[in-house]
Design goal:
By secondary structure, this protein is mainly alpha-helical. The chain has 13 helices and 5 strands.
Length: about 325
């Protein structure tokens, strides 16, 4: 999926229309070279993040909060910082990385955000549930089959190597007891996630509850492509089909994956047990992240940084790789 230009203003006369228009004007001026660069990301991508997020966010607290942040940003520098907060606290949270959970940067201090952060901090406690137990229960729930194609696990008479993927990444809650900084950052991520859903996600997934079955979906590995990676790399997402419970349309960032990996258009989750199926609210958060990431160009930006970092063993002493280092640090991509 290529980055999608911000469409004409879709909002009627309102605060949302004004906020979205600011994004359109910012992007037009950035494309004309009239906006200063931002550490780690070109201005057109920065404003596209906010515009697409405002347009696609649920028509509830999340959209209202994004609108307020855009409106209250005093200048272009503050507006770009708002975009960075949502990038690190939302998009980077879902994007697979070998590094730690990204910090959401310093969020403009709004009471609702700080209250949510404090609430999340109080709830986050490491517990006894773990990835292995969640995988075992998820296998039983799906009759030991990969949930999208129905292929049976190789441990139970099939040929597929089945793995468990967390919809909301488990890294969000891991090692939070090791430092106050990690706990503070994780709480900020949860505060941002809670803005874009109508379910009470913080207590539902706090601590060891990150492994609850509603947050686990089974994937399988074939020769070179791992479906788990497609999901974690924001290349595949699921959106509910209206009027059909537990049925989802499978969206792909690159349509060739559908043919190469035989990915169906639709999937319906079911179980013969009384165990809960993956929660549509969690899948909706993942889908929103994927769509904003690809439409804004943020996903391509991350992939470009990662490719360049992989090909750079040593940073140049003459400063020629300074932009790459700034991008990696600003995007919280591990520097080896």
């Amino acid at each position: 999926m290529n980055p999608t230009p911000l469409p004409p203003n879709p909002f009627p006369e309102s605060a949302f229309q004004t906020a979205y228009q600011r994004c359109l004007v910012f992007k037009a001026e950035a494309n004309a070279g009239l906006k200063p660069s931002h550490p780690g990301c070109p201005p057109p991508v920065v404003c596209a993040r906010l515009g697409h997020l405002l347009r696609l966010a649920p028509n509830s607290n999340g959209r209202g909060q994004v609108q307020r942040e855009i409106t209250l940003a005093a200048d272009d520098t503050k507006l770009m910082e708002v975009a960075r907060v949502y990038f690190n606290g939302f998009i980077r949270t879902f994007k697979r990385s070998s590094g730690p959970t990204p910090a959401p940067s310093e969020h403009p201090s709004r009471p609702s955000f700080e209250d949510a952060r404090a609430y999340a901090t109080a709830l986050m406690q490491e517990g006894q549930l773990d990835h292995r137990k969640a995988r075992s229960a998820a296998l039983y729930r799906s009759d030991y089959r990969y949930m999208i194609s129905g292929r049976r696990s190789n441990t139970h008479g099939g040929t597929a190597y089945v793995t468990a993927a967390h919809i909301i990444p488990e890294a969000t809650n891991t090692k939070i007891d090791q430092s106050d900084k990690k706990r503070f950052h994780s709480a900020g991520v949860w505060a941002i996630l809670s803005m874009f859903t109508d379910v009470d996600i913080i207590p539902q997934l706090a601590g060891n509850n990150i492994h609850r079955l509603e947050n686990v979906i089974l994937m399988y590995q074939i020769q070179i492509q791992i479906f788990h990676n497609l999901f974690d790399d924001l290349l595949m997402w699921l959106k509910p089909v209206e009027g059909r419970p537990h049925t989802y349309r499978i969206h792909l960032a690159r349509e060739e994956y559908r043919t190469d990996e035989r990915i169906p258009e639709l999937v319906t989750f079911s179980t013969a047990t009384d165990l809960p199926l993956p929660d549509s609210a969690y899948l909706a958060l993942h889908a929103l992240c994927c769509e904003v990431a690809w439409m804004s160009g943020a996903a391509e930006h991350i992939m470009d940084i990662e490719r360049r970092m992989d090909g750079t063993n040593v940073l140049a002493s003459d400063g020629t790789t300074a932009d790459l280092l700034a991008s990696a640090l600003a995007s919280h991509i591990p520097v080896h």
